[in-house]
Design brief:
27 residues; mainly alpha; 2 helices; 81% helix; elongated
Length: 27
């Protein structure tokens, strides 16, 4: 549950980018 912490921090864009990359890779 580090998503809330990330959103409060700022590395949200980075986490989202990693998740999006992972989703694209799985597709």
């Amino acid at each position: 549950m580090s998503v809330l912490n990330a959103v409060r921090g700022k590395p949200v864009h980075r986490m989202f980018a990693v998740i999006r990359n992972n989703k694209v890779y799985e597709k």
